[in-house]
Amino acid sequence: MTKNFLASAVAIVGLAMFTIPGEVRAQRAGIKRTLLQQHDLSVSGREMIQARIDFAPGTAFGKHTHPGEETIYVLEGVLEYEVAGKPPVTLKAGEVLFVPAGVAHSAKNVGSTEAKELATYTVEKGKPVLTLVK
């Protein structure tokens, strides 16, 4: 096999592990998730996943949880986050947010331009990275 083929195969497998089920993706028009990297950690059973999430103006990603911590860095635009038990917070480029493991939260682009965040997840390996909360 060629190096390009192997690299593509690894990227597809990694993205498949991070991708949200089809019916959920369909409900999230205007939001694009790009897997940047995924690595096992030195702590047994834990992994780090890093992704860029792009939000079209006015789009939101509803309440959800992760099986570990999420660290968010806003790259562009203005995003409003609601984290259970706390008042909503509006962040602009260069600002950060920490979401504890298992805590329900949501994000919305409240600006008039595209917004982007860098999300780093430190999660339990083998569990879905994201679970929607009803």
From TrEMBL:
CDD domains found in the cross-reference section: cupin_BLL4011-like
SUPFAM superfamilies reported for this sequence: RmlC-like cupins
Domain Cupin type-2: 53-119
Pfam families found in the cross-reference section: Cupin_2 (PF07883)
PANTHER family documented for this protein: CUPIN DOMAIN PROTEIN (AFU_ORTHOLOGUE AFUA_3G13620)
Protein name as annotated: Cupin domain-containing protein
